[in-house]
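wait is this the right file?? whatever heres the structure
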């Protein structure tokens, strides 16, 4: 997705990448449910939002796993009565340049703007492409208990007016592309949310 990206990849073929992901996930207990959505421009789906689930033809091994649920980007679901709005977070690329004080180093501060504007891509006509549907699926019409994003490759957490904002980090170290954009990732730092208390902690692997 960027110049010379192939130099940062161990596996160039997209189908083989999904096979490798599935091989890692099969080592997890089968009673652990895994919810997976497309990762912005990095998956085999259209770039414009909303994005459908990753096609079965590219990720057959993942679809064959009984404990994996493949959803689109963004998506809304509930786990034990806790409402989650999960979104890769492409809209961060729009709000960060136009609002003073925002940066990729503190993505949850940027995610507040999604809630304030009730929209996951509030800056129309900039970097984030949106499919011209009759209904705008990027509108936040239900206030979630948890808004979970990624995209920034930085682990972060903020409690904003009763909504838990969590930005998951990544498993990849600093790339040349991120260095050019001034992004310092926090690889292998994972957020753990207690569904009973809604308290969040981070574990560094």
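ok assuming it is, sequence goes like this
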């Amino acid at each position: 997705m960027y110049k010379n990206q192939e130099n940062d990849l161990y596996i160039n073929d997209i189908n083989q990448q999904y096979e490798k992901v599935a091989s890692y996930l099969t080592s997890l207990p089968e009673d652990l449910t895994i919810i997976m959505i497309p990762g912005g421009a990095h998956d085999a789906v259209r770039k414009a939002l909303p994005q459908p689930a990753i096609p079965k033809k590219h990720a057959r091994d993942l679809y064959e796993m009984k404990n994996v649920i493949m959803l689109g980007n963004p998506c809304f679901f509930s786990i034990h009565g806790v409402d989650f709005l999960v979104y890769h977070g492409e809209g961060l690329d729009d709000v960060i340049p136009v609002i003073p004080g925002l940066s990729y180093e503190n993505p949850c501060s940027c995610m507040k703007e999604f809630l304030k504007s009730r929209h996951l891509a509030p800056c129309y006509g900039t970097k984030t492409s949106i499919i011209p549907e009759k209904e705008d699926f990027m509108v936040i019409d239900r206030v979630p208990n948890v808004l979970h994003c990624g995209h920034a490759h930085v682990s972060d957490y903020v409690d904003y007016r009763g909504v838990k904002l969590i930005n998951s980090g990544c498993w990849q170290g600093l790339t040349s592309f991120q260095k050019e954009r001034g992004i310092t990732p926090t690889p292998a730092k994972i957020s753990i949310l207690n569904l009973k208390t809604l308290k969040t902690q981070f574990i560094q692997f």
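The radius of gyration is 17 Å. so i think its the right one actually
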